[in-house]
Structure prediction request, 818 residues.
Amino acid sequence: MGTHEKRDAARQRFDVADAAPLLLDAQGVVTSWTRDAQRLLAYPAAEVVGTEVTGLLSAEDATRVPELAARCRRDGGWAGLLTARRKDGQLVRVMVRVTPAMEPGGAPHWLVLLSDVSGARGWDMSRAVLEQMVTDSPVGIAIVDTDLRCVWSNAALERYGGGSPRERLGRRLGEIQPGIDFGGIETQMRRVLETGRPVVGYEHVGQVRSAPHRETAHMMSFTRLDDDQGHPMGVYYTVVDITDRHRARQRLALLDRAGEQIGRSLDIVRTAQELADVAVQDFADFVSVDLLESVLRGAEPEQPGDTDRVPLRRAGQQSVSPGVPESVVGIGEVATYFAGSPPIRCLTTGRSWREERLDPLAREWATDIPDGRAATFLDLGLHSVLIVPVSARGVTMGVTTFFRGHRQDPFDEDDLSLAEDLVSRAAVCVDNARRYTRERDAALVLQRSLLPQRLPEQAAVEVAACYRPADELTGLGGDWYDLIPLSGARVALVVGEVPGHGIDAAAAMGRLRTAVRTLAALDLPPEEVLAHLDDLVARTADEEGLPLADTVAGGAESVGSGCLYVVYDPVAGQCAMAAAGHPAPAVVLPDGAVSFVDLPQGPPLGVGGAPFEAVELSLAEGSTLALHTDGLLAHAYDNGTADADRGRLRRALERYGSSLDQACRTVIDTLVPARPHDDVALLLARTRLLGTDRVADWELPPDPAAVSEARKDAARQLDEWGLEELAFTIELVVSELVTNAIRHAEGPIRLRLIRNRTLICEVTDGSATAPHLRHPRATDEGGRGLLLVSQFSQRWGTRFVPGGKVIWAEQSLTEPPV
Prediction:
């Protein structure tokens, strides 16, 4: 059948029962006007017959008449929509069908059929035309009855498999496409049958028979069909393949998850595991991440040399199956590969590799498995693979391997592109973690070298200390603790914290700790030590030209640091302390009761403010001082009050036993997580007292004759202590120090001997002037006293006390006297 014949056949399919006919001659003049035409356009025949048809049309369509006339002559007719003008001027949309008609005399005429479609939904079409539309539609269309059995489908559904329209008749969807969620789809159909409300845009994912090894996605819409009485006859539904759009959404969702879940820490292994965890969600069935050993250490990647076996460290792995049964090595173990294996080729070349179908009998590439778990890919249930180098900033740090086993569809080029995008994002995080690990390790080494390797031996207190560095999210901080032996058997206990993190904070901590030890050597009271320290920090910041806000915010300097300085005297059982922006210590009494020192808070170091104040308290022997940085309480309860935080510390201290070391670990483990947000330092010091059997003192008159008596008293005391071998040295020291006090000082003079780990000789006078060590000439008659004291003593010095000063000298009890 030719083109014209097909068009003629199509025109004949229109229903013309309700059309209004009229006749036109060859020039387009109306020659016959019917009552139906009059009802439609309201013109009487007398006004229309003999006029051109253009007068019955809108101005726009009137211009089309010559073109339409030519098409009628060429094609033998025409059908389409035009706008007619009623007698009252109202425009009406009409369906026009033009066919040739011959009068008996043979003059050519045209029969025109007009149908009013202004109130219709659209172009009125016959059933045959509608059938043609749905049958030839590229959209899959089907109709099921009320039992959900197929009664009609178009040819477009054949491309999804399941048979031809005839083969589908009478079958349920589960019989036609068993690989999809037919239960969910039929639930939608039943809902539409019950409610009459259509369902639009229902999506489902599954395997259709035309692609049994590939996951496909489709969008369906469902509409109920009713008979003339409004009773449900069935459901009309359409099917559109949206697999490409579905996979694009999956890729975007996967990359979004990767952005949220990968790189949440600065731990290399955790980052690798996050990559594996994300990738098994809707992409792969088994993922492994193998990195170079040097990367895990934070060093620069060391590419494999000329060797037939290359070891990599398994940093992360995940599977859709519980227990990761596909893995032949565990996390943290070494996976050794042959030099020519695909993982090592990707590592050395930096290029990805894809294999749609693995040889099922080929062995997994890892070799030298310690317990012989090597297996074929068939044993492991794996059939498709992608290997992507973990590369960032021009260096390759390892490889990520993606396998599919449960999913039947193999990896394609789009999957490889997605995997490369996914790994490239994770690689930046791994490299950041590697760089951070290197810096953190360096900072940790620096900090540990600056912290006390062991606390010095002394008799004033029994001590234990614990330090827990911050985790990788915030970086290593600048907390420190110290114990500094002072003169007179006293000790200084110090805990401090520098703001900021990293190497700068560790270095600032080292400088501050050194300054504290230097000031402690001056034997100043706690409030004066902090005042000098505050001045030092502020002056350093001024010299470096750093604004206060920058130093505090940047955390690289000591401005804003906190410090608690405590001096304990085991002879008097007295404790003096002062704080600069630092929590007060807790005190555990011998009976286990816990209290907190009411200590005035001075400003942080370097920021200026009120002067520092010290408090003094007496401590019973066996009391324990708990000095800590603020991180100890910051982790106990995120939004806790100071009283609540102290309550938790009190309960933790009340539970500890007799061992200070065990107590230290218990308190830290109770209040601080394994990976805290801030450094934590805890120093426990249990007090001791030096009894009267180890201390002897005498008041001396300011009379030169008292020197001889002082020597005798000292010698007798040494005899009682069994230290006769030190008698000559101590008598010399006593003689020189007492003589200087009588000659150059004023007020009462006291001599005190303390038998501690060393033998300490102290002379107190009322002068505030410190003596100076001189090197006299041979002709000088005096000035050799302190020189002799320095030569015969292990160490000596001066400290100032209220109302005067103390000159002291120590003599070793383990070394032979000079």
User: Anything to note?
Assistant: The CA atoms of residues 631 and 680 lie 5 Å apart. The first helix runs from residue 3 to 12. The two ends are 133 Å apart (CA to CA).
